[in-house]
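User: Can you recover a sequence for this backbone? Please restate the input before giving your answer.

Assistant: Of course. Working from this structure:
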């Protein structure tokens, strides 16, 4: 990895350069800094980066702004000098001789920079679709083609990310969305067509990814990321990219990624505004850390009625434009590529883009030491169990063999035991995962009042439904179930689900060739394949 890639933002680097100038007497105490246009030319940066740098120096007490006049240098007290040294130390400007050599080299013939660890390879651009990437010094074909990336959300933003990752040659894509295409999607989503109305977004996006690049291996899930994906899938990803439009789904992705110690890239868009941010467990703030008190109150209010909270997740609609989706989707894709190559990113920071003014700036979040998401699972025990075939009793028995007779299982999804109507004094026994109980079903069929929901997420061994399968109580395939005796946790993966839960071979028949089969979406088929709901290929 080249050492020339800075870990600091451009404004921080500029602030360090200016602080170095203060220490060297280039800008004496009491003097006025050159005009902004002169500093921009001297430092080779944009106006927004310069202003951010000047703000950093002002907050450090090194500069004062006089409205309508300019910036003035303060006297360097001991404390200010220490701060200036700290800022300057973070920037390592080249020595004058080296700088002159670099300038001389820059004025001479241009040569392709090549990383020391990567020999120069001239690809055949007529036959190699990724050939031009070989000219990038840090590009590693094997890493890209072996990468596993999950894209959660296949709307306007997800379309751009999937398109970009596919063009980049990312080898394995797992696409998740619970929605179907409607007319309003067609003005913002490059992967959807007029004939696609009413079809599953995840399925369509996966099929179109293969059309763009037949070398990509794809898998799709028409489902809800909060309930339908096992943690074992997250565990086997290199990067997760969130293209979501609601806080609840982001919170779920954040927790799942953190528990599995995986980085994820979040993006959000509205009209001409957008943001992109990277979250890496153990490095700065996570998404949950960024929630304001008002946001936490809103979540608490929604979850005071869990059935309504469930419905709210399914209703997120945000007005966007295809242009802002392209901009933020490109940023997210680029950050994912950097993570795959182990290049420096800025975790725990957010990059805001304002399309009205074309202004862009970065802000750092403060990590919350008490954040509930900050938990990374320990060693995972892989068991040859399947969610559809094995029972609560079987898993509990295994866990108690490891942790003792007081061990309990903890489910990630709440289990609805009963619905109680206080007005009618009636109880309906349900025993379904929360995702299978609608807000409408929560109302009493007799009086219409909203019923109280009796929930649990802990299996103690005293239940009368221990012979129920794990899937029947909301445990998805390839999930990792927690067990605890109150003093210690164990983590058990349903690894028997691996062949069907994670395979990346949807549309594997679409092998590129002289007469490659076409993907025909929505074609009726016969037999077992029809029940699978997959897109089929025909000649």
């Amino acid at each position: 990895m080249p050492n020339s890639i800075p870990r600091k933002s451009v404004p921080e680097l500029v602030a360090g350069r200016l602080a170095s100038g203060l220490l060297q007497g280039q800008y004496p105490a009491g003097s006025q800094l050159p005009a902004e246009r002169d500093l921009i030319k001297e430092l080779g940066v944009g106006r927004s980066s310069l202003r951010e740098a000047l703000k950093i120096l002002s907050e450090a007490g090194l500069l004062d702004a006089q409205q309508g006049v300019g910036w003035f240098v303060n006297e360097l007290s001991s404390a200010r000098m220490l701060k200036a040294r700290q800022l300057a130390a973070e920037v390592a400007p080249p020595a004058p001789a080296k700088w002159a050599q670099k300038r001389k080299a820059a004025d001479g013939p241009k040569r392709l920079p090549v990383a020391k660890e990567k020999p120069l390879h001239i690809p055949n651009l007529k036959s190699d679709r990724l050939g031009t990437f070989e000219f990038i010094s840090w590009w590693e074909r094997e890493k890209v083609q072996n990468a596993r990336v999950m894209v959660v959300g296949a709307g306007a933003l997800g379309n751009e990310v999937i398109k970009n990752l596919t063009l980049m040659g990312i080898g394995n894509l797992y696409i998740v969305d619970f929605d179907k295409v409607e007319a309003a999607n067609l003005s913002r989503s490059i992967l959807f067509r007029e004939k696609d109305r009413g079809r599953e977004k995840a399925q369509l996006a996966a099929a179109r990814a293969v059309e763009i690049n037949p070398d990509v291996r794809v898998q799709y899930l028409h489902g809800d990321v909060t309930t339908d994906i096992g943690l074992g899938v997250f565990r086997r990803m290199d990067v997760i990219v969130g293209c979501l439009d609601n806080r609840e789904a982001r919170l779920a992705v954040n927790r799942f990624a953190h528990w599995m110690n995986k980085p994820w890239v979040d993006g959000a868009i509205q009209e001409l505004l957008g943001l992109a941010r990277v979250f890496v467990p153990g490095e700065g703030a996570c998404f949950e850390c960024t929630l304001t008190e008002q946001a936490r109150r809103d979540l608490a209010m929604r979850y005071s009625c869990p059935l309504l909270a469930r419905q709210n997740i399914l209703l997120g609609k945000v007005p966007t434009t295809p242009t802002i989706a392209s901009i933020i989707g490109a940023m997210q894709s680029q950050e994912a590529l950097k993570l795959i190559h182990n290049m420096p990113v800025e975790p725990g920071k957010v990059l805001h883009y304002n399309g009205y003014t074309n202004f862009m700036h970065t802000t750092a979040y403060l990590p919350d030491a008490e954040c509930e998401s900050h938990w990374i699972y320990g060693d995972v025990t892989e068991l040859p169990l399947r969610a559809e075939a094995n029972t609560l009793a079987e898993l509990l028995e295994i866990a108690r063999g490891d942790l003792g007779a007081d061990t309990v299982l903890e489910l990630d999804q709440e289990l609805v035991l009963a619905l109680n109507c206080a007005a009618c004094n009636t109880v309906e026994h349900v025993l379904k995962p929360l995702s299978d109980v609608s807000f409408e079903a929560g109302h009493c069929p007799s009086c219409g009042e909203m019923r109280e929901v009796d929930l649990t997420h802990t299996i103690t061994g005293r239940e009368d439904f221990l012979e129920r399968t794990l899937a029947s109580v909301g445990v998805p395939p390839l999930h990792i179930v927690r067990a605890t005796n109150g003093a210690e946790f164990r983590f058990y993966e349903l690894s028997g689900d691996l062949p069907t839960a994670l395979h990346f071979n949807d549309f594997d028949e679409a092998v590129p060739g002289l007469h490659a089969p076409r993907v025909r979406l929505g074609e009726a088929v016969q037999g077992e394949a029809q029940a699978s709901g997959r897109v089929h290929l025909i000649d």
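That completes the design. The CA atoms of residues 92 and 520 lie 57 Å apart.
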